[in-house]
Amino acid sequence: xxxxxxxxxxxxxxxxxxxxxxxxxxxxxxxxxxxxxxxxxxxxxxxxxxxxxxxxx
Length: 57
Prior knowledge:
mainly alpha, 56% helix, 0% strand
């Protein structure tokens, strides 16, 4: 299995999801995101991993 670099858009989406998941942790009220911060961070990792594993994504 060969890995490929994720596209810029996939990387930016993963970074945005990771930042959104960390906002409640550092004390910034983000509404309902606080309850789902772990899942948002997991989703960011899955998006980034898919960008590495799937060629052309």
